[in-house]
Write a structure and sequence with these properties.
Elements lengths: L4 E2 L1 H8 L3 H10 L6 E3 L2 E5 H21 L1
Antiparallel strand pairs: 1-3, 2-3
Helix pairs in contact: 1-2
Length: 66
């Protein structure tokens, strides 16, 4: 299956945040570095899904230990 890439607006919609938040999240490590196509940053949907799964596992582990 070919990799699907999302533009900044699509990533912002995915997480229900403003596009400027994506820039901040990229800088502070909450998002992986984008793949650049010229000047256009693109995020792999597969990488974002992996990131979401890791965050869910971490949150579940933190809830169990609390």
């Amino acid at each position: 299956m070919p990799t699907k890439f999302l533009r900044k607006r699509q990533v912002a919609e995915r997480y229900s945040v403003h596009e400027r938040s994506i820039d901040r999240w990229k800088l502070d490590g909450r998002l992986p570095a984008p793949h650049m196509r010229g000047r256009i940053p693109l995020w792999s949907e597969r990488e974002l899904e992996q990131l979401d799964r890791r965050a869910t596992v971490t949150a579940n582990q933190n809830n169990r230990s609390a």
